[in-house]
Design a protein that fits this description.
The chain is of the alpha+beta class. The chain has two domains: 6-207 and 387-391, 2-Layer Sandwich (Ribosomal Protein S5, domain 2), CATH 3.30.230; 211-383, Alpha-Beta Plaits (2-Layer Sandwich), CATH 3.30.70.890. 44% of the residues lie in helices and 24% in strands. The protein contains eleven helices and twelve strands. It has helices at 2-23, 98-111, 135-150, 157-172, 179-186, 225-246, 258-264, 270-294, 298-314, 321-331, 359-374, and strands at 28-39, 49-65, 70-75, 80-85, 119-125, 191-196, 202-206, 211-221, 336-342, 347-355, 379-383, 390-392. Strands 1, 2, 3, 4, 5, 6, 7 and 12 form an eight-stranded mixed β-sheet that branches. The chain is globular, with a radius of gyration of 21 Å. The relative contact order is 0.16. The chain binds adenosine-5'-diphosphate and magnesium ion.
């Protein structure tokens, strides 16, 4: 814990000195974390429940005011600078990382009515980019907080999360839900967050001290992911359309109970029934997982994670050989409470809850057995449940 906190402090202090060198002034620093979803997969777009956790890797931004109405940003990850005019009358995206900066400025000024000051920004992320740990939400949330701080304004965290989603949907042009910016804004050290994606009500749930989150990247991303994701969404909509003929209160699969599905599910086509069964049972599992965490019952949480994986594999059919292998390897290692695929599927990562003492052995065995099975070297990230976005004091 201490070593990892120290890493954050080192990053912030290095960023301040790099900022001085680049722009010649002192800077304020903010940090926003990436995230992993512990349980509740493919439930977000069905108005259901998810349980993300903020992780230690994230995006740091150093910022200081400029006299003019420009944002000048340099990303150390891309070794590149970009300029945004805050008074641009028709701002549009360029398919460039700076869209994430400009999108937030547009949302804050045009949609939320803030008056922003010009600024110099220096950006650094220690999250793998494009690996499903939400570096996009981390840069959005960090940018939002940095620009507001620089302009002497404050914001409600739920509002900020909505503006970040708005920026990614409407400006960057990526179809994403509220979960990622929400946890990056509202995460709490040592806690998971159960979010109701319909009402945006949330509960913080303590994660016992003795475990780490271990994220294992399969290093594969199968090409059918996007097409299948769209198909799953359409299948869920079809399920809602058919079930609502019998159950008029059903507006989303979130409104369907296990008993409803037992009674009316037999009239559904087989594949639609299976998709619905995943979503309906996954929503129950998320709530059961919250109850398990409240009792510090890691064994129960682990069983729910295992059931979630099986449901994603057999009913939702979004797993793949590599994810199944990674989960199977983990499940056989002592000190592992739970292992499941996380994210959309067809590759990407697994999330594992591992006894801290067992983590070194876990890493060794996963690397060796996964490599033996696939010829691929997995990337492994070990993290505690981290704090949501914050100013980093000098
Ligand atoms: P993920 O959110 O899974 O990491 P995305 O494709 O949604 O992947 O977002 C990645 C994009 O976010 C990058 O291509 C880049 O445009 C932007 N981004 C993330 N981190 C940084 C960074 N440190 N500097 C500049 N841009 C970043
Ligand atoms: Mg993203």
């Amino acid at each position: 814990m201490e070593a990892k906190t120290a890493t954050g402090a080192i990053i912030a202090s290095k960023l301040r000195s790099d900022f001085r060198e680049r722009y010649g002034t002192e800077a304020k620093v903010v940090r926003a974390p990436g995230r992993v979803n512990l349980i509740g997969e493919h439930t977000d777009y069905n108005d259901g429940f998810v349980m993300p956790v903020a992780i230690e890797p994230g995006v740091w931004i150093a910022i200081a005011p400029r006299a003019d109405r420009k944002l000048r940003a340099y990303s150390q990850n891309f070794s590149e600078s970009a300029e945004v005019d805050l008074d641009e009358s028709h701002p549009r995206p360029h398919g460039h990382w700076s869209d994430y900066v400009q999108g937030l400025a547009v949302m804050l000024q045009k949609n939320a009515g803030y008056q922003l000051r010009g600024a110099n920004l220096l950006i650094f992320g220690d999250l793998p980019i494009g690996s499903g740990l939400s570096s996009s939400a981390a840069i959005e949330v960090a940018t939002g907080l940095a620009l507001l701080e620089n302009s002497g304004s404050t914001i409600n965290r739920v509002e900020l999360a909505k503006l970040c989603r708005g920026s990614e949907n409407e400006f960057v042009g990526a179809h994403v839900g509220i979960m990622d910016p929400f946890i990056s804004c509202n995460g709490r050290a040592g806690h998971a967050l159960m979010l109701d994606c319909r009402s945006l009500d949330y509960r913080l749930l303590p994660i016992p001290d003795g475990v780490d989150l271990v994220i294992c990247n399969t290093m594969v991303k199968h090409a059918l992911a996007t097409g299948e994701y769209n198909t799953r969404r359409a299948e869920c909509e079809e399920g809602v359309r058919r079930l609502s003929q019998r159950l008029p209160h059903v507006l989303a699969l979130r409104d369907v109970s296990v008993e409803d599905l037992d009674r009316y599910g037999k009239d559904l086509p087989e594949n639609i029934y299976k998709r619905c069964r995943h979503v309906v049972t996954e929503n129950v599992r998320v709530r059961d997982a919250a109850a398990a965490l409240e009792k510090a019952d890691l064994a129960a949480l682990g069983r729910l994670m295992a059931e979630s994986h099986v449901s994603l594999k057999d009913d939702y059919e979004v797993s793949c050989l590599e994810l199944d292998l990674m989960v199977d390897i983990a499940a056989q290692i002592d000190g592992v409470y739970g292992a499941r695929m996380t994210g959309g599927g067809f590759g990407g990562s697994t999330v594992n809850l591992v006894d801290k003492k067992a983590v070194p052995d876990f890493q060794r065995r996963v690397v060796s057995e996964y490599e033996k099975g696939t010829g691929l070297m997995p990337q492994i990230i070990v993290s505690t449940a981290a704090e949501g976005a914050r100013d980093v004091e000098a």
